[in-house]
């Protein structure tokens, strides 16, 4: 399958770090914020050369995979209809210390399950959440490197999970698919996986323990 066109919504810390790595890995990458593309283009010249600046609407329409790298509290600015069928990587975390309280996320569900409910036709995959933006480049390693870290993913659509897993691998990390979107409850803020810096086998073991402990059995 041809490489997906990647659109990143958000040009802050995580958005630009992912844009740099994805461009380096050979992907066609666009970036949008709520600001006009000319303003973003100037920023990208320095922060992510090779990534295109677009309007948010054009970015979503023209991308096969959209990475949500905007503040979680802005999610209602997304147009659900525009995300129908799109692989949508939710990199957003609920972090009240920086964003304030968002009562709908004070829930036993993960924030990505709530985003999936808001974007019912999107193929949501949770990813890029449990590592700091500065670690993406600092810790990226080629496949097979003994020091390669792992990144957890979770989503309800196996084909979407696989496309995101390939992106994770190509930018420098071993992907570990935890399961469907419910499994993303196991690697959010405050879990032992968040910031752990685990390799693939360590991460798989941590996830298995968390899934056993917190997910209801079918
Ligand atoms: N920082 C990390 O290490 C890290 C790691 C994992 C996950 N996360 C999560 O990733 C998300 C972004 O974090 P960050 O640290 O990158 O934040 P940030 O540096 O504040 O950047 C946020 C970006 O989102 C853009 N934005 C705001 N409203 C938007 C909208 N309606 N449409 C499109 N773009 C919009 C902002 O653009 P303007 O300049 O136009 O406002 C800015 O470029 C958060 O949910 C955070 O929890 C962060």
Tell me what the structure shows:
- The chain is of the alpha/beta class and 218 residues long.
- It has one domain (6-214): 3-Layer(aba) Sandwich (Rossmann fold).
- The protein contains 8 helices and 8 strands; from the N terminus they run βαβαβαββααβαβαβα.
- An 8-stranded mixed sheet has the order 3-2-1-4-5-6-7-8, sandwiched between helices.
- Helix 1 (13-24) runs parallel beside helix 6.
- The chain is globular, with a radius of gyration of 16 Å.
- The model has no long low-confidence stretch (mean pLDDT 96).
- NADP nicotinamide-adenine-dinucleotide phosphate (NAP) binds at residues 9-15, 32-35, 56, 69-72, 74, 77, 91-93, 95, 128-129, 132-133.
Task: Kindly summarize this structure in a few lines.
By secondary structure, this protein is an alpha/beta fold. The chain has 8 helices and 8 strands; from the N terminus they run βαβαβαββααβαβαβα. It has helices spanning 13-24, 37-47, 56-62, 96-99, 111-118, 133-139, 158-171, 200-214; strands at 6-9, 29-32, 52-53, 65-68, 87-90, 123-126, 150-155, 174-179.
Low-confidence stretches: none
CATH superfamily: NAD(P)-binding Rossmann-like Domain
**Roughly what is the average pLDDT, rounded to an integer?**
96
**Regarding quaternary structure, how should these chains be classified?**
single chain
Radius of gyration, rounded? 16 Å
Number of domains in the coordinates? 1
Number of strands: 8
| CATH class group | Alpha Beta
- Sheet of most strands: 8 strands, mixed
CATH topology: Rossmann fold
What are the distinct ligands in this entry? NADP nicotinamide-adenine-dinucleotide phosphate
- The N- and C-terminal alpha carbons lie at a distance of 34 Å
Question: In terms of structural class, how would the helical and strand content be classed?
Answer: alpha/beta
Beta-strand percentage range:
15-25%
Order of helices and strands: EHEHEHEEHHEHEHEH
CATH architecture annotation: 3-Layer(aba) Sandwich
Shape descriptor = globular
Query: Share of helix among residues?
Result: 25-40%
Q: What strand line-up does the widest sheet have?
A: 3-2-1-4-5-6-7-8
Helix tally equals 8
């Amino acid at each position: 399958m041809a490489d997906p066109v990647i659109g990143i919504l958000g040009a802050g810390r995580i958005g630009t770090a992912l844009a740099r790595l994805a461009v380096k890995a050979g992907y066609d990458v666009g970036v949008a914020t709520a600001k006009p593309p000319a303003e973003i283009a100037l920023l990208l010249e320095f922060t992510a050369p090779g990534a295109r600046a677009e309007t948010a609407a054009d970015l979503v329409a023209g991308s096969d995979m959209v990475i949500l790298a905007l503040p979680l509290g802005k999610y209602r600015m997304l147009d659900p209809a525009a995300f129908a069928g799109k692989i949508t990587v939710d990199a957003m975390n609920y972090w009240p210390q920086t964003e304030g309280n968002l009562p709908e996320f004070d829930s036993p569900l993960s924030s990505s399950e709530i985003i999936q409910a808001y974007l019912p036709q999107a193929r949501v995959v949770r990813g890029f959440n449990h590592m700091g933006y500065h670690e993406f480049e600092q810790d990226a390693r080629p496949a097979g490197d003994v020091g390669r870290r792992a990144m957890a993913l979770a989503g309800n659509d196996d084909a979407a999970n696989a496309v995101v897993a390939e992106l994770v691998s190509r930018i420098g990390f071993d992907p570990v698919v935890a399961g469907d979107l419910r499994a993303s409850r196991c690697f959010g803020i405050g879990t032992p996986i968040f910031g752990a810096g685990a390799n693939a086998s360590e991460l798989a073991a941590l996830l298995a323990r968390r899934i056993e402990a917190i997910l209801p059995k079918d």
